[in-house]
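Sync notes, pocket subgroup
Present: LS, DG
LS reminded everyone that the earlier model was apo-only. Rerun requested with thiamine diphosphate included. Inputs:
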Amino acid sequence: MDLLSIKDPSFLKNMNKQELEALSQEIREFLIQKLSVTGGHIGPNLGVVELTIALHREFNSPQDKFLWDVGHQSYVHKILTGRAGQFDTLRQFKGLCGFPKMAESEHDVWETGHSSTSLSAAMGMAIARDLKKEKSHIVPIIGDGALTGGMALEALNHIGHEKKDMIVVLNDNEMSIAPNVGALHNVLASLRTAGKYNRAKDELEYLLKKIPAVGGKLAATAERVKDSLKYLLVSGVFFEELGFTYLGPVDGHSYDSLIENIRYAKKTKGPVLLHVITKKGKGFTPAEHDTVGTWHGTGPYKIDTGKIIKAVSKAPAWSSLVSETVRTLARKDERIVAITPAMPVGSKLEGFASEFPDRMFDVGIAEQHAATVAAGLATQKMKPFLAIYSTFLQRAYDQVVHDICRPNLNVFIGIDRAGLVGADGETHQGVFDISFLRSLPNMVLMMPKDENEGQHMVNTAISYDDGPIAMRFPRGNGLGVEMDKELKTIPIGSWEVLRPGRDAAILTFGTTIPMALEAAEKLEKHGVSVQVVNARFIKPLDESMMHDLLKANIPLLTIEEAILQGGFGSAVIEFAHDHGYHSAVIERMGIPDHFIEHGNVDKLLEEIDLTADQAVAHIKKMTPQKQKRA
Ligand SMILES: Cc1ncc(C[n+]2csc(CCOP(=O)(O)OP(=O)(O)O)c2C)c(N)n1
């Protein structure tokens, strides 16, 4: 069938098994082809083709509500809800979002990007439904990886207690991005192999019902029999003990099995956990055989060879630079321990893990736990390196405040993907960490201008023993600069002048330094001499340089690839104000007060006026007398 002609999922109701299977095949071919050009989350989506089709066939969306946890596996749902025609624009500026988006479709009832939120949101929706006396099925779909997140476990606890009607679909493919980890993973493994438990329970119930006039005593015995059967047949009864009816394991690629179990779940009162076994990457050999996580989300690739097309860069990836420098230091310092919340591949910790398997911990999607594990290690005079993406650090804020900063513990937080990240969009932009960390007592926050300074900063962080220290670094690769052989330490709170100038100064750090240098170059041609400062410590500021600049009474422009409120520019203004420089002329460039959507980073920077030309315009405005002279 023509996938582009799909307006809504109602057509599925009349399809027989053969037609559903043919449709699955077409959707797989469509995804493999489209994503080979745009890139995207190919593995997770190929795994849920039958599951998504079966759900849309058996429920009535949007009255029945699907909540896609993380949301990276919602492409099939997007196709079935009339968005196939937009796949050429997937994850591009103004194009189809890679995650559920309420503005895109009435079928997207919950927005995600960060994991493990679907069950809590589903609970809120179930409470609202019941208070309003409405009828609908609420169906969160959560992966075995996302289930390890603390929020999901908090929600299971609450849902089981309240006994709300809800069908939790557990999409178990044994993978997070990397292979899933943890004790819960073992619970699922035992359920997967328990096989026929649910059917056996059904059969027993059927038999019991056939016995006429079951008296109280017999019924009680029957309950006990059921209970012991449960223990007999299932090595882990985790979900039933939590108050859920456990259904499964269900073959997530068999329509017979899926439809039968979904129908049974719909009839069951109270919360149901439908345990569906799927294969990530199903139908595309390289993705199906992926044991590392390469095909979880990729850039464009060649379909015939399965080769991922990557821009070649001679410069190291920032994540590698940081993790490999920590690894080098770990050879000499046995106290160094690395922690990742489910991102060993993205954080390029594979090398560290293979060399120091006892000192590397993938804790699952558990950022809060990761931060406090780091704090616990630090109390014992170990040197924890918490490798975490800026966006996911948001989830561990209280742990950073309460467990790390307050007791002033020596934790090194490597803040990866700081700044705009591009295609993943609103939910993943790393633009808030400056504001939320700058306000914390004891925190040192820095960002290097290039990978050479980056390696020295890692060394600085590991040698620092006065409390928490964080280094932000961007997504992607360094600049390709020459690397010093010897690691140095950088004095805390020290900035450097990259280019001298008399008439104005630009204070910036990290990725926006080239923009500042370009602006200074252009302004030179207009007769304006602009100093460019590498303000590599965002906290503490270089107070002596700040005083010098403010005493010189030249206009200052701050530039940051981060949200303006409470950011670096705010720190500079606060400093000037607090030290009585009331006539100081300071302007700020950064991310305005709204969430930044998906798209190519350069395009996004242009959209929000974060460009060298805008810096030129700011400085020109602040130096009118120089313009006349020029
Ligand atoms: C809070 C948070 N931490 C980390 C991530 C990064 N992340 C995205 S998908 C994913 C794995 C999810 O695994 P699972 O739920 O099993 O889904 P699958 O991809 O296997 O279908 C991770 C760790 C995230 N999205 N949110």
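DG: The radius of gyration is 28 Å.
LS: Residues 44, 70, 72-73, 114-115, 143-146, 171, 173, 175-177, 280, 296, 342, 365, 367, 392, 395 surround thiamine diphosphate (CB under 6 Å).
Action: DG to write up.
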